[in-house]
Every structure is written in structure tokens, then in C-alpha cells.
């Protein structure tokens, strides 16, 4: 079997590729209406499609991994991402790019699957540090990938972004096939196709309402139909899952107090992270004349926020040691506290660029600790045969948080805006209010974390392999 360090490294690269998909089109997002000859509302689907696909694929792929082999499903997700990248790279019209971006969203499932693989194949003493590293890639890939995307967009045709993603996917596929061992721990039973369909329809409704409500109008019939319809479908789906012989997700396991509270904290943590991803670049890039910005280029702004991702990577081994000694619950609390401090610091000191660099370093500490702790808490509370599905569900809750943050922050910035020439520019109060909301989300994550039980479930044990 390959050395365990090689397995961790390959899964970390897969995680970086996954998070890179979310910042891939950021440099061209404002130009998409001109590039694709479509309205701004239509081109918004280039981003929305990825979010929807990620939310749907993550819990379903986790269950498939538990049943049919985690490496096999991980390879399938990477293959779908490569196919989507090629489709988008060959497309010059809106439909092709949206289809490609939706297929790219499938790769988000590799992170919870990779974390589950670590539990199966690593020595018990190395699991926490490895999970911290893989979790850190959720922020590192975006923070480091943004400058790369900015450089490519500035000096080359925008299609090259998708060819770059395809090439990265091919490398990840080859490395996983070569290094990562075949999964031997499987869950018996049949795949719950009806449950997968119900979950997909319900999530689609809710995610559409959250992600498109600002454009459609929060009280518009389409928004209400999607949101309320999605909730109703999920309620019916939950009743079916509780009676199913081989459910897609074991809701009794998901309802355990440590799992439920960790997932709720994940929503708040995801909101706090994505709020920072939206706010800091805009503040840095807006013209100085607007009274809200610093007038930096996209590349310069991405270099300012990049330290947050680097801090996450540097803290990953520290996170593992802290969790191993005093438990992941304390790690979650430290992460939430760092986010509270980051947002409070930003509200008090935001007149110079270097102050925003400091704030992003604090954001990196918060997300690095918080995201590392959540899969550890989940795996201490579920049986080994449920790790893929349970980590997938946790990733889904994080996605709900990020999607909610995107919608709420966009609504705040649009509501409190003033005219500058032909454009509407957010006022300083719009950013202050958004930072307050990010801080409140961090406080919620901290409070919820206080109620997570300290003890470990008896199912925490997993096969320990020799080093």
C-alpha cells in the first residue's frame, strides 16, 4: 500500500481542485453578459449552477461512496468535473457554459469523500492532522486560485480558465488512481433512488429560492414556490427516509445531538466564511471615489485576501494536534471566536489596506480551525459505515450557509447603494452592516458549539492500520 503521507497529499490536491472551482469564474463574472451575449440575470446561472450541483451531489455521492467504494465515486466525480470543464472550454454560448459549470460542481463531493477515506486507511494517530489538512483546502484553493484566475484572465482568452481546470482534473484523476487505495469498508443494501430523487427536488427548490431570491424578489411567486415547495418535499422525504429499509441518509444518526449541532454550526460557519469572500474583494476593488473602496485591481485585491488561505494551510498541522489533545469541540470554539474578532476588528479598523490583510489573516485562523473541527466531530459520532454520507450531509449544511450568505450580502449591498455615474455602488453602511451579519453568524457558531457534547460516541472506533 502507498505511504500514508502520499495518500493525504493526493487527497489534499483533490480538495484544492474542488475549492478552486468556486473562484474560477470570479475574474470574468462581471464581463459574462458581454462574453456570452446574454443578460446579467441569465449569466448569474454560471455561478448558481455550480452551487446547485454541489449541494445535490455532495450528500448523494457520500452515500454512494459508503456503498460502492469511496475511491471509485471520487474518481467518478473528478471525471464529471473534467467533462464539464471541456464542455465549458469549447463553448461560446450561455447554455454550454452553464452545463459545464454544473458538471464542475460535482467535484465538491471529493472533500467529504476524501475525509472518509482518511478514516478508513490512516493510522488512528494521524487521522486528526490529515483531516485538518484536507479541510483547510476548502479555503486554500479559493484564496490561492483567485490570483491564478486573475492572471489567466488578464493575459489570455477566458476559455483558458476551463482548459486549466480540465488539466488539473486529469492530474487529480491520475494521482488518485495511482496512490489512493481501493476502499474495503462498504455499507450493505440497495441504493435509495427514490430518496435521492426526493432530496434532489427538495434541495433544488430551497437552493433556487436562496440563490435567486434577490433577483426574482423575495416575495415573488417563483421564489415562494421554490422555497416552500422545497421545504414540503424535504418534509415528505424525511418521513419516507425514516421508514425506508436502506435510506439514503440515516436521519436517526443525523439527529444525534453532536451531529445535529455540528451541522447547525456548519451553516453559521459557512455563512461567515462566504460573507468574507464576497465583502473583502469588493471593498478592495471599488473606486476610492465611491467612499467605500480602495481602487485596487482584481489581481492586487486577490493578493490581499490570499493570506487567509495560506494561514489555513499553515495551521492545519496545529489544528490536528489541538484536536487530538483537547478535542475538536474546543477547536470549533476557537475558530468561531477568531471569526468574531476578525469582523469586530474590521468594523473598528478598515481605513488602510494592511488592516484588511490583518483581518483576512484572522479569517484564515477562524476558518482553518472551524472547518478542521467539523468533520472530526462528525466522525466521532457516527459509525464507520456512515462516514461518507454523514460528511456529505455536513458539507451540504456548509453549502446552505454559503448560499445564504451570498443571497443576504447581495441583498444588503443592493439595498444600501448610491448612484455613481451609471452604476449603483454600495455605501459604507452597506459594508458595515454586512460585516456585522458575518460577525453575528460567527457568534451563532460559537454559541451552538458550546452545546456540543464533550464525549465521544462508542462508534468512534475505526480500523487502525499499522504505520
Automatic annotation (TrEMBL):
Residues 7-456 form the Major facilitator superfamily (MFS) profile domain. The chain crosses the membrane at residues 43-61, 73-99, 105-122, 129-148, 160-179, 191-210, 216-238, 259-280, 292-318, 330-348, 354-374, 395-417, 429-452. Keywords: Membrane, Transmembrane, Transmembrane helix, Transport. It comes from Microbacterium mangrovi. The keyword Phosphoprotein does not apply. GO terms for molecular function: transmembrane transporter activity. GO terms for cellular component: plasma membrane. The lineage of its organism: Bacteria, Bacillati, Actinomycetota, Actinomycetes, Micrococcales. It is a multi-pass membrane protein. InterPro entries: MFS, MFS_dom, MFS_trans_sf. It holds the Pfam family MFS_1. This is MFS transporter permease. The keyword Transmembrane helix applies. Its main location: membrane. It is found in: Cell membrane. It comes from the Bacteria.
Amino acid at each position: 500500500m502507498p505511504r500514508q503521507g502520499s495518500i493525504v497529499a493526493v487527497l489534499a490536491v483533490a480538495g484544492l481542485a474542488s475549492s478552486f472551482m468556486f473562484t474560477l469564474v470570479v475574474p470574468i463574472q462581471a464581463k459574462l453578459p458581454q462574453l456570452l451575449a446574454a443578460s446579467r440575470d441569465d449569466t448569474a446561472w454560471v455561478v448558481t449552477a455550480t452551487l446547485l450541483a454541489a449541494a445535490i451531489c455532495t450528500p448523494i455521492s457520500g452515500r454512494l461512496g459508503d456503498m460502492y467504494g469511496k475511491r471509485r465515486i471520487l474518481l467518478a466525480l473528478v471525471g464529471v468535473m473534467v467533462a464539464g470543464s471541456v464542455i465549458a472550454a469549447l463553448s461560446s454560448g450561455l447554455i454550454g457554459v452553464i452545463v459545464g459549470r454544473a458538471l464542475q460542481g460535482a467535484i465538491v463531493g471529493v472533500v467529504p469523500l476524501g475525509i472518509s477515506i482518511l478514516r478508513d486507511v490512516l493510522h488512528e494517530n494521524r487521522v486528526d492532522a490529515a483531516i485538518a489538512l484536507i479541510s483547510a483546502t476548502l479555503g486554500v484553493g479559493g484564496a490561492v486560485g483567485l490570483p491564478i484566475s486573475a492572471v489567466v484572465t488578464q493575459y489570455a482568452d477566458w476559455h483558458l480558465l476551463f482548459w486549466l481546470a480540465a488539466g488539473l482534473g486529469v492530474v487529480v484523476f491520475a494521482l488518485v488512481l495511482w496512490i489512493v487505495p481501493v476502499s474495503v469498508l462498504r455499507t450493505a443494501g440497495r441504493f435509495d433512488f427514490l430518496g435521492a430523487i426526493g432530496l434532489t427536488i427538495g434541495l433544488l427548490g430551497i437552493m433556487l429560492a436562496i440563490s435567486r431570491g434577490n433577483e426574482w424578489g423575495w416575495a415573488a411567486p417563483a421564489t415562494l414556490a421554490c422555497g416552500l415547495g422545497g421545504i414540503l418535499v424535504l418534509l415528505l422525504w424525511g418521513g419516507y427516509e425514516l421508514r425506508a429499509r436502506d435510506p439514503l441518509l440515516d436521519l436517526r444518526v443525523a439527529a444525534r445531538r453532536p451531529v445535529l449541532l455540528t451541522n447547525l454550526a456548519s451553516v453559521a460557519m459557512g455563512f461567515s466564511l462566504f460573507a468574507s469572500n464576497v465583502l473583502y474583494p469588493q471593498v478592495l476593488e471599488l473606486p476610492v471615489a465611491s467612499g467605500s473602496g480602495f481602487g485596487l485591481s482584481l489581481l492586487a485585491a486577490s493578493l490581499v485576501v490570499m493570506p487567509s488561505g495560506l494561514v489555513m494551510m499553515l495551521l492545519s498541522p496545529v489544528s490536528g494536534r489541538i484536536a487530538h489533545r483537547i478535542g475538536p469541540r474546543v477547536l470549533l470554539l476557537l475558530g468561531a471566536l477568531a471569526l468574531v474578532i476578525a469582523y469586530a476588528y474590521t468594523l473598528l479598523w478598515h481605513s488602510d489596506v494592511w488592516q484588511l490583510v490583518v483581518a483576512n489573516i484572522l479569517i484564515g485562523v477562524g476558518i482553518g480551525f472551524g472547518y478542521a473541527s467539523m468533520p472530526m466531530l462528525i466522525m466521532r459520532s457516527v459509525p464507520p459505515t456512515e462516514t461518507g454520507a454523514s460528511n456529505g450531509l455536513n458539507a451540504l449544511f456548509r453549502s446552505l450557509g454559503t448560499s445564504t450568505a451570498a443571497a443576504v450580502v447581495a441583498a444588503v449591498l443592493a439595498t444600501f447603494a448610491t448612484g455613481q455615474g451609471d452604476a449603483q455602488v454600495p455605501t459604507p453602511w452597506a459594508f458595515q452592516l454586512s460585516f456585522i451579519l458575518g460577525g453575528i453568524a460567527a457568534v451563532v457558531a460559537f454559541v451552538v458549539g458550546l452545546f456540543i457534547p464533550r464525549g465521544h460516541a462508542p462508534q468512534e472506533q475505526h480500523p487502525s492500520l499499522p504505520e
